[in-house]
Amino acid sequence: MHLAYPVVLAALLFSVGVYGVLARRNAVLVLMSVELMLNAVNLNLVAFDAWLRDSLHAGQALTLFTITVAAAEIGLGLAIVLLLFRARGTADIDRATALGDPAESLAVEEAPNGAEELKGQAAA
Predict the structure, then answer these.
(1) What is the pLDDT of residue 55?
(2) 92 pairs with which residues across the strands?
């Protein structure tokens, strides 16, 4: 089999993944696009390992490492997205600009003038 076929397929997969990361607003779809890019890298690693006929199979070993890292990344990423959804009510990336507690920022805006000083004294 020629090397060009898997390399072109990997380039297309990676391009679709980059488009998904740059164009999507939903955090879950961005994570899926990152996984698509990682799978394109894995396809390249295995294709070049088979093409070079490496006796150590370094490409396949790196692919297993990449799959492990991708699984950990998607687990942590989904946990962050779920916490974001619980706190904000949306998984939209553009609306998640403030990383603080939304209830705390509302409480500071609605508090009377002397409450800010009392809050600072209680923290000290």
Answers:
(1) 85
(2) 26
